[in-house]
Amino acid sequence: MFGPNNDAFARQHRQDVIEMAKKKLVRESVSQPVRLEFNRLPNDDTYEGITLRTKNIWFVAPEPGGKRTNPVKVERIKDGRWTCSHKGWKPNADCKHISRVRHMLGEDGVVPYDGRRRRPLTKWLFGEHSQAEDTRRNRAREAEPIKVPQLAVELCKRFVTQPERSETNSADGGATGVPLAVRVFALLMKVFWNVTYAQLRHQIGLEGAIWDLGFMKLKTPSKNSMMSWFGDPRLLDILKQLFIVSTKPTGRVDTMVLGDSHDIPTRQVDNSRDRKFGPKPATYRNKDRPLVRQHFAVGKVSGIITAADITLTTGAGSNDSVHLPSLLEQTKASNPGVTVATFDKAYGGRPNFGAAEGLGVDLYVREKSGEDRVAEDWPTSAQMLTNIERTYPAAYADVYRFRSKAELTPARIKARNPYMRLRRRMKDPTPTIPPGIEGKPFAELTEDVRQAVFEAATESVGIARLNEAWAILIIANLRTLNLLEHLLGQHVTFETDVTLNPPLEMREEDVA
Q1: Are 137 and 487 in contact (CB under 8 A)?
Q2: pLDDT for 175-234, tens place per residue?
Q3: Where would a tag sit more exposed on the chain, N or C end, judged by fewer CB atoms within 10 A?
Q4: Strand order in the sheet with 50-54
Q5: Closest CA to 305 of 230, 186, 408, 459
Q6: Are the C-beta atoms of 32 and 124 separated by less than 8 Å?
Q7: Of 70, 100, 104, 102, the residue nearest 87 (C-alpha)
Q8: CB atoms within 10 A of CB 457
Q9: How far apart are CA 161 and CA 476, in angstroms?
Q10: Are 236 and 470 in contact, with CB atoms under 8 Å apart?
């Protein structure tokens, strides 16, 4: 069993499973990739790591990998109350350490989830004469600088329609007559290469793909032309459609989506991580200046972003929770097979559980302190899932643990665009927030008022920042498609939508 000090046994167990799986793959001539999941080895029944020191004092061993190196002291004091020494413990609260000791003594019938139980380890395995997972990932990284621009060109060729000449307006379009496909491609490449306008002009000239999209000028467009392009309102609907197209492959393997949000700075001296975790900023940094917030849902297996809303970090409609119904509706539209969603506690509440239940989705969100989701005024799905969370916390955690994979998406975006700043334009209009909504819970607003608030929250971002924010999401999906192409041995093609070819016949549990 996995305990605090027997990591060697865990490593040996994993290696034994891998070797047995390799022999089975060779014996059965399996050619499709398979991802193994190693079962947890629970220690709930043995209570390994709990030591009795005195009659009323127990020491609980720390969790592996955590920062704490000393055991946690759990003490039973008079009147049947308990205390715990871990940081942040509140008086009269039953933490996981106290619950575990009480369950060992037979005082509590609920088995608390033990963090020392390892998360299932996973590893991709392929046929006998195939490349290993690490090799395939390395090949994907090497091919990305060439493959992603190729996918972007193909997207623009197939799904960007050029309006009639009479519909164009040279006053707000920059260089007259430049195809919209060229403008979209230039914006996608600015995000992908993470460059300035001057560097973008140089790189586009070297790339050559812009000429394939119908740009017949003798020289690359100027900086002012590209700035006008990227603030063009016509690009917004096009980019949204390209994003929807890039989500199509999720229906092949995903039945679960994971949700979160992240912020993008809007000025050079600002940093979203410092806003959240850092010290109090200096006065000159103007901390009240809002950031651009991307609310998104991502496929558990594919890693493709399936839905997104874009707002600012402040103002009506910017709260995370109110966007969950929209994210689930977008996801079901592109992938009707989704039946499970996991979000953090910020996305809880009766309206969200009701919306998820109406879409046929089981919403896994941890119960907050002070909530009673088994009460009759909560939706049926909330009551059912809360009973599972309270009675079978380990089974609930086996599903909810995947939520942390949603953190990988903003981490990848910010790692590849470290100096990304989305700046508002002077010409951006100021949206009108519907009157009379101050102080009212969002769930109590009528449907038309809520829709008006959402539209105002989106418009407040500004057209240029919206265009670039959607381009960021499209490029993130194209990078993921490139990885899936190598990892699954598929080929990404563009017919009426983005597909993986040849057809991928496997269940989610085979690759989860």
Answers
A1: yes
A2: 456 788 889 999 999 999 988 888 888 887 777 667 777 666 667 788 888 888 898 889
A3: N
A4: 50-54, 57-60, 72-76, 82-84
A5: 408
A6: no
A7: 70
A8: 24
A9: 23
A10: yes
Burial, 41: exposed, middle or buried (Cβ in 10 Å; 0-12, 13-18, 19+)? Answer: middle
Q: Which of 175, 35, 86, 111 is CA-nearest to residue 392?
A: 111
Report phi then psi at 136, rounded to 5. -65, -40
Q: Which tokens hold the place of 279?
A: 């010290």
N-to-C CA span, the chain: 24
pLDDT, one tens digit per residue, over 229-276 is 898 889 999 999 999 999 988 877 788 999 999 998 887 667 776 777
pTM: 0.76
Report the C-alpha gap between 13 and 477 in whole angstroms.
35
C-alpha 314/C-alpha 34 separation (Å) is 44
Q: At 218, give phi and psi (nearest 5°).
A: -80, -20
Among candidates 222, 243, 235, 232, which has minimal Cα distance to 307?
243
**For residue 84, what are the β-bridge partners?**
74
State the sign of the Cα–Cα–Cα–Cα dihedral 34, 35, 36, 42.
negative
Q: Which two tokens stand for residue 71?
A: 């055991």
Q: Which tokens belong to 220?
A: 């690359």
Contact 296, 307 (CB under 8 A): yes
Q: Residue 64 has which token pair?
A: 């592996």
The Cβ-side half-sphere exposure at 408, using a 13 Å CA radius, reads 15
* Distant-in-sequence, close-in-space partners of 491: CB < 8 Å, separation ≥ 6: 485, 500, 501, 502
* Secondary structure in 3-state letters for 224-268: HHHHHHHCCCHHHHHHHHHHHHHCCCHHHHCCEEEEEEEEECCCC
Tokens of residue 109, six digits: 């019938």
Query: What pairing do the DSSP bridges indicate for beta strands 305-312 and 340-342?
Result: unpaired
Cα atoms in the Cβ-side hemisphere of radius 13 Å centred on 88: 3
